[in-house]
Amino acid sequence: MIQDLIPLDQILKRRAALTPRKTFIKFNGKKFRFRDIDHLADVYASFLLGRGMQKGDRVAILCHNCPHYIAAYFGIIRAGGIVLPLNTLLTHEEINFILADAGVATCFYDGDCSGTVAKLREAGSCSFFSLSETAAAGLVPDSSVTFSRNSADDVSTILYTSGTTGRPKGALLTHRNFISNALAATAVIRVTNKDRFVVFLPLFHSFTYTVCVILPLLSGAAISLLPSVRPFSRVVKSLIVDRITLFVAIPTVYKILAEKDMPFFIKLLLNLRLCISGAAPLPVRVIREFEGAFKVPLLEGYGLTEASPVVSINPFEKGKNKPGTVGLPLPGVEVNVVDDNGLPLPPETPGELIVKGPSVMRGYLNRPEDTAKTIKDGWLYTGDIAALDADGYIRIIDRKKDMIIVDGLNVYPYEVEEVLYRHPSVKDCAMIGVLHDEEKELPIMYVVLNDGKQATPKALREFLSEHVAHYKIPRRFLFTDELPRNATGKILKKELRNWYAEKEVKH
Q: Any alpha helices (H) in 220-272, and if so which ranges?
């Protein structure tokens, strides 16, 4: 494994020199060797420098999963630029805000995003260049161009938060942030050059980039890259055909696999040694059902964009995994749980989770006040309510901002949701608090039922009453066909509040 903290683009360059002919990426039946991706990175870097790009300039990528996305990412860095990955699910207005906020002058895109790009061009946001056309026009990198030399502490990437609790903010992440995070993660899950990943989560997300790109690059592992999770049959096919050993996904995918009536012989063909879940809470029920069906360890981890992103993961060692927790902090990462005054709390006492370590971001772009509120004395205040057990395992209780106050008592939605997931009729659920009588919060539970199953609010209320205190039980149960989620499967509770507000207005 490449161990030292050299800039990301140089890690690719070194890997290409060490194993030039080894396949790094398999995509749509084509194989891209490490040296192929390194060459393409040189092409993109030459193109940008030829256009007069200066060190520190921001370059956006609006693109679905493909090898050129990864090559352009490293090419931008190699040219001395800072990468700004854009969520392809955003509207042109949302993207325009991010481009303006970050001061982006150049954006690479793929053909599938041409409709959005056409609207962005009308707004005069910046200059847009097709990834494929740029690569085709510059098959030989300009040898006269000197690539910029980055340091490990330079900002490599600006990742905008999801905006689930307000306006998106750009997290400034350095080379050191990403590399230290990937090195710590691989020490826990023991990745080698014999491992093979299937990558279908969007590359614009920090979880995907760190765990499914940088980590394999450091280890010399291979990835089978898919455009997206749909159709899901393509994911299953890749698992078998590509002999995937490491499966990284979000809880929604594991729910599907656990519930899927997959023929026994297909399970026998799988070569999986480990599955990892992140980006959203994973119900214990799903862990048990998945492990029972596939006989493969499923480890839940926890992270956030501002920590590059992995903070913790359950240990790989047998008997040390604690379902219902998100495991132990990665090597080199410190965590604590504090009260509203920043004072440490004893074990099993809920409070705000704070994180310190080399993967913590530098701060938010152009937002010194938000940075000061979030990073204090080197500690990242996550906004998540958690508790540490006697062994140091982290149990995430809820988002601090999602906490509901009922008659002066704190109610953490995730705690109630976790219980409701045990009900045989419940497929999905999400609890929110809405303002009632201008001063009181009313807990509301949105529920998606399993196909062919039925349940009444009364039945769900009675089920919960057996497991949680009365004041924690939702006052209303609303049934829906699906819950709104972002690209990584996180439920958009802000959107649910909008749903409820619209419903109340209509009625």
A: 232-241, 251-259, 264-269
Could you give the CA distance from residue 324 to residue 338 in angstroms, rounded to a whole number? Answer: 21
Q: What is the pLDDT of residue 490?
A: 81
Task: Extract the tokens encoding 150.
Answer: 């980055």
Q: Taking Cα atoms as reference points, which of 238, 303, 223 lies closest to residue 269?
A: 238
User: b/e per residue, 73-97, with b = 16+ CB within 10 A?
Assistant: bbbbbbbbbbbbbbbbebebeebbb
- What pLDDT does residue 165 have? 45
Query: What pLDDT does residue 164 have?
Result: 43
* Strand pairing class (58-62; 106-109): parallel
Please state, in angstroms and rounded to a whole number, the distance separating the CA atoms of residues 25 and 46.
Answer: 22
The contacts of residue 321 (CB under 8 Å, 6+ apart) are 297, 299, 314, 315, 327
Q: What is the DSSP string of 28-44?
A: TTEEEEHHHHHHHHHHH
Q: Which two tokens stand for residue 76?
A: 């931008």
Q: Which two tokens stand for residue 483?
A: 């819950």
E strand or H helix at 159: strand 155-160
Enter the pTM of the model: 0.82
Triad 422, 423, 424: Cα angle to 5°: 110
Q: How far apart are CA 475 and CA 482, in angstroms?
A: 20
Q: Which domains does the chain have, with CATH numbers?
A: 8-18+30-150 (3.40.50.980), 178-400 (3.40.50.12780), 403-506 (3.30.300.30)
Element (H or E) spanning 46, and its range?
helix 34-50
pLDDT computed for residue 408 by the predictor: 65
What is the pLDDT at residue 32?
A: 97
- Pairing relationship of beta strands 440-449 and 426-436 according to DSSP bridges: antiparallel
Give 275-306 pLDDT, tens digit per residue. 999 877 788 888 999 998 889 999 999 999 99
Total residue length of the chain: 507
What sign does the CA torsion over 269, 274, 279, 284 have?
positive
For residue 297, whether the previous peptide bond is cis, meaning omega lies within 30 degrees of 0, is no
Closest CA to 205 of 271, 278, 312: 278
Cα–Cα distance measured from residue 53 to residue 223, given in angstroms and rounded to the nearest whole number? 31
Instruction: Identify the bridge partners of residue 287 per DSSP, sorted by sequence position.
Output: none
Cα torsion for 397, 402, 405, 411, to the nearest 10°? -20
Give which of 420, 433, 506, 425 is closest to 476, Cα–Cα: 433
SS3 state of residue 79: coil
In contact, 362 and 155? CB cutoff 8 Å: yes
pLDDT < 70 stretches in the chain: 1-4, 138-146, 162-167, 264-265, 268, 408, 437-439, 504-507
